[in-house]
Write a structure and sequence with these properties.
295 residues, 7-stranded mixed beta sheet, 10 helices, two-stranded antiparallel sheet, globular, alpha/beta, single chain
């Protein structure tokens, strides 16, 4: 069944990826109408998240962000499909890194964890590995359909990126560190962990929630550098990325310092252009279950 789904879907995805950009984004507009206006995909979740996070905004303002978010979401997910036939030259035009020297200079001395949020187009973040000679890894969640999973892994390999699961991350980082192999590890770090795995609870957008602090734990244990990747959507189909150093020496940071800096930078990003954040994600679902020790 998995193979049947793959061979039926793959030709359609390939055709979409080959569309000229004007037709491609016209198709995205059509998908927006279907997803938002006809089916209302996760509209209640999006509206609840926006109302919760922006209590001072009017209903008109919330609805405006909501509409713009769905338009961006359709663009973004179709741009993920576009990746399968996107050349290195083309992605460099559409995903511009403004200060690559920040990454390469630190990489001369030690490995780096690059943290980012579900913001703008995080799928194209892996293209930054085209600019470096060292090994690039991206932590991802394995897809249940093994044929799609293999396809995505092969596609990312074109951009000098090796995909590793969360379960493989610690072993990979420790192994490379022992061998003194300089590497870059990309992590999307704003997911919502299960309550029993929430080792750290703090405010995110002024709401107390459990936070993943795996990136910080690795950085402190192995003295890795940590950089925040801030991505902005400059216009439709074009993005600008900036590296913001959090620390060059993970061992020298205070407890939760790395995680807190990541959260503040993510909040700033969201407030600048809220429509580019992934509001369909139930990020604040555990807010009413804060353990007594974190109150």
């Amino acid at each position: 069944m998995q193979f049947l789904v793959f061979i039926l879907a793959y030709p359609l995805l390939w055709i979409i990826s080959k569309l000229p950009y004007k037709v491609f984004y016209l198709f995205s507009d059509i998908v927006y109408v279907i997803i938002y206006r006809i089916f209302g995909y996760r509209k209640k979740v999006v509206r609840a998240n926006l109302t919760l996070v922006f209590p001072k905004k009017t209903e008109i303002e919330i609805k405006s962000i909501e509409k713009n978010f769905y338009k961006h979401m359709c663009d973004m997910f179709l741009e993920m499909v576009k990746t399968m036939n996107l050349s290195k030259e083309e992605v460099k035009k559409r995903y511009h890194v403004t200060n690559m020297d920040v990454l390469t200079n630190i990489l001369k001395d030690k490995s780096i964890i690059v943290v980012c949020a579900h913001y703008a187009n995080w799928e194209w973040n892996v293209s930054m590995n085209n600019y470096i000679k060292d090994k690039g890894y991206a932590v991802y969640q394995k897809i249940s359909n093994r044929y799609f999973d293999a396809w995505i892994t092969k596609t990312r390999a074109r951009w000098n990126t090796t995909l590793i699961t969360q379960a493989e991350t610690v072993k990979t980082v420790i192994s490379n560190t022992k061998k003194n192999i300089k590497s870059v590890y990309g992590m999307v770090s704003d997911q919502s962990p299960m309550v029993h795995k929430g080792q750290y609870w703090t405010e995110f957008m002024d709401i107390k929630v459990p936070i993943f602090n795996g990136a910080e734990a690795l950085a402190k244990k192995l003295d890795l550098a940590v950089i925040f990747l801030k991505v902005s959507k400059t216009k439709r189909g074009y993005y600008s990325a900036e590296f913001i150093p959090i620390t060059k020496n993970g061992k020298e940071t205070e407890k939760n310092e790395i995680t807190n800096q990541f959260l503040r930078l993510t909040e700033q990003q969201i407030k600048e252009k809220p429509e580019h954040y992934l509001w369909t994600h139930r990020r604040w679902k555990h807010r009413n279950r804060v353990p007594k020790e974190f109150l």
